[in-house]
């Protein structure tokens, strides 16, 4: 009975269901970080409806899109380069990354830099593996999976890679947050999250350019 009451309470806190939409209608390869602090970008799972804020970083990396795409999915190597997401726990059936990753794969991130002298953690789930180069972009994404399939915190993090001149890549990485019970707790961290996202992009740039 207590479990049923807890479930009912959690569902009462959940944001309203979003209307069905087709992420194929978005020109993902043409997205850029907004020039202002209030605009948001859609995500593959949730679209634009209910979005309230976001963080975004964008840069040119001197490496081909495929190398960056694979590095972002090589979760077992994050400790080698990523000063923000310092560790990723994966299911036991994942022996090699990026080769074994799959849509729907659960992940447990250990994150540094948001709180002084303490790491934080988050449950995530892989939502997109789009490596169709004929569409002129590569994209992978994951979303929060915190409590009841993300009920407590609705947010999704796409990484979009498009070819630039001279074999380089335009890297756009963002996380859009949606209205939900946990949003008032997360919004005060927006500035620090943005700083860590920017640093994560620089870490990635240094890492793949040295491969």
Relevant terms:
single chain; 211 residues; alpha+beta; Alpha-D-Glucose-1,6-Bisphosphate, Chain A, domain 4; seven-stranded antiparallel β-sheet; 4 helices; disordered N terminus; START-like_dom_sf
Write the layout of secondary structure elements.
Blueprint: H1 2-13, E1 51-61, H2 65-73, E2 85-89, E3 106-115, E4 118-130, E5 138-144, E6 155-163, E7 169-178, H3 183-186, H4 190-209
Antiparallel strand pairs: 1-7, 2-3, 3-4, 4-5, 5-6, 6-7
Beta-strand content bin: 25-35%
**Class derived from helix and strand content:** alpha+beta
- By CATH reckoning, the class would read Alpha Beta
Low-confidence regions: 1-19
Protein model, in words:
With 211 residues, this protein is α+β, with helices and mostly antiparallel strands. The chain has one domain (49-209): 2-Layer Sandwich (Alpha-D-Glucose-1,6-Bisphosphate, Chain A, domain 4). Helix content is 21%, strand content 31%. The protein contains four helices and seven strands. The protein has helices at residues 2-13, 65-73, 183-186, 190-209; strands at 51-61, 85-89, 106-115, 118-130, 138-144, 155-163, 169-178. The protein has a seven-stranded antiparallel β-sheet with strand order 1-7-6-5-4-3-2, covered by helices on one side. A hairpin with a 7-residue loop joins strand 4 (118-130) and strand 5. The longest helix is centred in the C-terminal third of the chain and has 20 residues, at 190-209. Residues 1-19 have low confidence and may be disordered.
């Amino acid at each position: 009975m207590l479990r049923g009451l807890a479930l009912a309470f959690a569902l009462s806190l959940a944001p309203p269901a979003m209307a069905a939409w087709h992420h194929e209608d978005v020109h993902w390869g043409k997205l850029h970080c907004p020039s202002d602090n209030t605009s948001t970008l859609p995500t593959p799972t949730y679209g634009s409806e209910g979005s309230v804020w976001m963080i975004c970083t964008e840069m040119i990396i001197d490496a081909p899109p495929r190398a960056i795409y694979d590095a972002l999915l090589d979760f077992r190597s994050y400790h080698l380069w990523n000063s923000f997401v310092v560790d990723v726990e994966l299911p036991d059936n994942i022996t090699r990354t990026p080769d074994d990753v799959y849509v729907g794969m659960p992940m447990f991130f250990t994150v540094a830099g948001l709180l002084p002298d303490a790491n934080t953690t988050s449950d995530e789930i892989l939502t997109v593996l789009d490596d169709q180069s004929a569409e002129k972009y590569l994209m992978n994404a994951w979303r929060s999976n915190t409590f009841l399939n993300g009920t407590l915190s609705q947010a999704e993090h796409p990484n979009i890679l498009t070819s630039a001149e001279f074999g380089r890549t335009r890297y756009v990485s963002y996380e859009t947050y949606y209205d939900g019970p946990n949003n008032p707790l997360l919004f005060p961290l927006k500035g620090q999250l943005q700083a860590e996202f920017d640093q994560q992009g620089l870490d990635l740039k240094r890492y793949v350019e040295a491969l």
